[in-house]
Amino acid sequence: MILELTQDSFQKEINAATPVIVDFWASWCGPCKMMAPVFEELSGEYAGRLRFGKLSTEDYPDVAEGQGISGIPCLIVFKDGAEVERIVGFAPRPLLKQKIDAILDKI
């Protein structure tokens, strides 16, 4: 399950007990469209360990700006409200899974 984040829900979700990876994306972004099915597919593999959320930079530019998003897609892993790591640009499934696993091993 992927959480659709908004300006109102963003802070609550990144401060939750379980870490969350947030996909900052836009509808006009080609690499974002390529990332969407990979992100969706991986979301099922990390149940209980990592939550998955998406935030539209078009709908919520203030949130994206507040996180220093300068390129999309940008995936940021948050734990206890703090950024742990970010992955910028499209990554194929095996590479993204490897990066997520490495991040989870650190936290």
What does this structure look like?
With 107 residues, the protein is of the alpha/beta class. It has a single domain, classed as Glutaredoxin. A five-stranded mixed β-sheet has the order 1-3-2-4-5. It is globular. The model has no long low-confidence stretch (mean pLDDT 96).
Largest sheet: 5 strands, mixed
CATH topology: Glutaredoxin
What class, by secondary structure content? alpha/beta
Encode the helix/strand succession as letters. EHEHEHEEH
Indicate how many domains the architecture comprises: 1
CATH superfamily annotation: Glutaredoxin
Please identify the top-level CATH class.
Answer: Alpha Beta
Helix count equals 4
Strand content: 25-35%
From the alpha carbons, calculate the radius of gyration and give it in angstroms. Answer: 12 Å
Outline: globular
By CATH, the architecture is named 3-Layer(aba) Sandwich
Key words describing this protein structure:
single chain; 107 residues; alpha/beta; Glutaredoxin; five-stranded mixed β-sheet; 36% helix; 26% strand
Question: How are the SSEs ordered, and which strands pair?
Answer:
Blueprint: E1 2-4, H1 10-14, E2 20-25, H2 30-43, E3 51-56, H3 61-66, E4 74-79, E5 82-88, H4 93-106
In a few lines, what is going on in this structure?
With 107 residues, the chain is of the alpha/beta class. The chain is 36% helix and 26% strand.
